[in-house]
Amino acid sequence: MDKSIHWNDAGANTASGSATPRTEAELLELENVYCSHGDTVHYTNPPKIFDRCEGSFMYDAQGREFLDLQMWYSAVNFGYRNPRLNDAAHRQLDRLPQVASQYLHREKIELATIIAQDAEKKFGMKGRVHFNVGGAQAIEDSLKLVRNFKKGKSLMFAFEGGYHGRTLGASAITSSYRYRRRYGHFGERAQFIEFPYHFRGPKGMSKEEYGELCVKKFARLFESEYNGVWDAKVGEAEYAAFYVEPIQGTGGYVIPPPNFFKGLKKVLDDHGILMVADEIQMGIYRTGKLWSIEHFGVNPDIIVFGKAITNGLNPLAGLWAREEMINPTIFPPGSTHSTFNANPMGTAVALEAMHMMAETNYETMVAEKGAYFLEGLKDLQKRHKVIGDVDGLGLALRAEICEAHDSFTPSKRLVDLMVDEGLKGDIDIDGRKYGLVLDIGGWYKNVITFAPSLHISKSEIDLALRLLDALITRVTRN
After folding, report:
1. Which residues of 160-186 are buried (b: 16+ CB within 10 A; e: fewer)?
2. Could you give the domains of the chain?
3. pTM for this one?
């Protein structure tokens, strides 16, 4: 059959001149021929096609409903098709949808003001906000900001298990070699430092003790010039900044002990090294705070944000930085540029999201829902030996799937099965069929990372736990 695309006089594309919608099989055939697989993740075979969404659910063309527990990698924190945020997008579309980035618009200024004033209140430091279109691009901007402020120093610290994006600069501070393997290096690769991943850390240590040990190991690098990072004679580090995810995202939602970042920040401050908090995945109340670094009692020098600030409606990301790093005398106009960097559609939706967050007690709501969900995961852990570890902070939760014989050996095999089976949409709960959208993370790709809508209801959490129970039972049956 001829699957070529033709255009009619009205400009609508059709298949072979017919206006009949293509079947899923036809779409997958076209995708396989004409779409790059490099910009998507073909982990399931065939890839799943969704047709619509609402609240916490995705729907396919057959109308089957899938409870989504990853919400576009934590980009849709406020639920699919959130009416208030969608309305803001429509209003902006009708008034000022486009404007060149060399000009100003009200939404950009007001959004930056809210973020900067909030940071000053929380961290006691004046600062400014700089926008871009995506998380990796904002990371790139932060690297420029750091290098400029540190007079060209280009070496960075980052964590084992950390993820900051896949552009050339961002991949250099991301621990996974696979993101760099085929492209070589853009500048210097970061020096990766041990993160307190307690479940796979030294046995016999509490979470807090392990955090203290990791800080001591890092501090040791500065004891002698022969450890390669510090010149004691002039009191200067070779490294400019430490890029941290307060809670590791792609690394598997690994949550450090409460004391960890205070110890780390003291070492950084003692040696003139900046702390850059990557909040792209964990910011915007995912953990119950606007920024996840707030849980740990330290003041970052830069915060990078993105994803959920527009609820996934329009690409917008950015950074907040201390005034002395980003004021126009040191970071003048044109220091970085992107055509769509502070686009009015994105800033309008983000501004409405910030107003919504100010009017709603997300801190209490997310903490309560997260505690309820975590308690349910702990109950599942008691009944399924393949769940080796569960943990969570707010509605950033994890379940580490392991082999049943020891509840410790990583089992990517079982997690892959769970994802595939969840996408079939045939899990029976009280006579009704559901699917389940899960995300895989972790150092061994054996962790289910849960990032449900912050608006998820108690009944939907109960449904999620029942679906997980049925799914684990199914994949462990043999």
Report:
1. ebbbbbebbbbbbbbbbeebbeeeeee
2. 1-32 (no CATH), 36-68+362-475 (3.90.1150.10), 87-359 (3.40.640.10)
3. 0.95
